[in-house]
Amino acid sequence: MSLIGKFFVVMQILLSVTFMGFAVAVFTYQTDWKGKAEAEQQAKQQAQTLTQNLQGEFDKFRLDMTATVKAAEDKAERAEAANTALQRQLEDRARENERLANDLQTQSTLAEVTEDEAKARGAEAMAQRTVNLDLHGKLKETKNSLLAAEDQVYNLTVERDNLVGKNKILTEELAFLRKVVRNNNLETDPRIYAAQNDPPPVLDGLVITATENAKGSVDMVEISIGGDDGLLKGHKLFVYRTGLQPGEAPKYLGQIELVFVDSDHAVGMVIEKAKNGIIKRGDHVTSKL
User: Fold this and answer.
1) In a designed cystine with 232, which of 195, 202, 259, 289 is the match (CB 3.0 to 4.6 A)?
2) pTM score > 0.85 for this model?
3) What are phi and psi of 280, to 5 degrees?
4) 214, pLDDT greater than 70
């Protein structure tokens, strides 16, 4: 209940008591003047006491109301100040909202532009993805080729190592065989060895020069055929002389072994001599009798 309501309640009680006192006084006056007077005096005292009490309560109520009104006025002033501050804040918020609305419009425009760019980037990404898939496929093929090449390199490395090992063994064997050949005074040139084992081609030539030693016998013979004719160092040829007179049979003079071969001539050492003839310039040489 508000203070004003309390005030009216108190006033109503006060008036009720007053009227009750008047009624009692009238009643007492009619029945007993002394009792009436005493009762009236007592009622008056009670009324005065009640009035004083009510006055005190009223004064207290007035003071309370004054303080309440003052507090209400202060509160109203503070509320007014707060309202003013809130109004300013509202204006600031309105300006901020306007700024935010402008920013939102700007951001919306940027978002649209960004969305368009994102779509374009998405299309580029899809195209790049296709390219990436192709590149991944090519990379996979390249990796497979690389693995195959690595396997091939490994196999070739193993084969090379095996060949190196075999080459080392063969080199050692070759060095040993050459040593054996040299110790047995054998030829190491494959062509000379082949010439010693394979007969020369069928051909004929003439003795250009026959060199005699101190004893008058022929040791070295130069002939008119050479390497262009298929001769090699080590080939053996026969020397003969045709009949000087018609019907005379050819005469065997000996055998030579070639020690030097040039393109168009060769030199041979006499390895077999006939007892009844000496090799001279103009005699014939042949690879087959």
Assistant:
1) 195
2) no
3) -135, 170
4) yes
